[in-house]
Amino acid sequence: MSTYPYVIINAFARTSFGGNPAVIIALPPNTLSQPQTFSEETMIKTSLAFAQPMAVFLSLSPEDSTLIDVRFYLGTLAPLICGHATLAAVKALCTNALPSLGQWGPEVKLRTKEGLIISARSITESGSEEDKYEITLPATPVATVPDVEIDRIASVFSEAAGRNVQVEYAARGEGKMGNYLMVVVGPDENVGDMKLDCEVLRKTSYSINILTNVTPDAEQVFVSRMFAPAEGLPEDHVCGSAHTLLVPYWATRLEKKNQEEMYVRQVSPRGGELWVSWDQERSLVRLKGHAKAFGKGDFTI
Length: 301
Known about the structure:
The chain is α+β, with helices and mostly antiparallel strands. The chain folds into two domains: about 5-135 and about 290-300, Roll (Diaminopimelate Epimerase, Chain A, domain 1), CATH 3.10.310.10; about 140-280, Diaminopimelate Epimerase, Chain A, domain 1 (Roll). The chain has four helices and 17 strands. It has helices at about 40-50, 85-95, 145-160, 245-255, and strands at about 5-10, 20-25, 55-60, 70-75, 105-110, 115-125, 130-140, 140-145, 165-175, 180-185, 210-215, 220-230, 235, 260-265, 270-280, 285-290, 290-300. The chain has a 17-stranded mixed sheet that branches. A hairpin with a 4-residue loop joins strand 15 (about 270-280) and strand 16. The termini are close together. Pfam families: PhzC-PhzF (PF02567). InterPro entries: Phenazine_PhzF-like (IPR003719). This is Diaminopimelate epimerase-like protein. Keywords: Isomerase.
């Protein structure tokens, strides 16, 4: 039997009951490059046992001391990227919350199973008592959904809300993010107050459904929510990967300058706040936010 340390961290939050939690698990060096030592089946079972929105497994890279290998699991689902879990992992690494992985920061680089390198860092801001953490993800190109498809999607959201929902625009992600749907609703819709039957959203035929609109609040640029009932996740508390579609869209529509920072919120019941920007020249999205440690311990299997 072996014992492994873990921490639970709420990403994009300053409180114990806000943001999106992730359990971060430290594995011995080289473990993720040698699946027989900690198999995918074991990661799935561990994720299910913790019952958190995402389980993150970290291991020192066998051939590059500047990299941390990372895997994401939500039960049997292994997403390509998970923004909130990455931010939580960076908090753990930069605060030495998992000593077996060593002290990291302010720069951190994580490598996914597919070989994607995620750059991240901790940021100490003058006058602030709490650090922020920033992750850099590839921007997701989107394709506008045809009008006839927008009408169908609007009818699904209207059915889920039990009333007519004003849908202005819809687009889907391209490439590996083709299961993402972004739906922009009218400014009169209060996204945070909308009551939706999440199971109805299975009818959109997309596994990830993002709802968004602008806000009259001068401090925040846009708000969003994300629903994924087909993935066993009725609503995600705060979704980092959704913002790889949202940030370029709103930056373009609102004519923001290259890399101009925007303060935005995901208005799920737990809620989360993000400072975001789009590097148009490099096609990168930067997500910045706070992270709050919630608990820690060890488990033995």
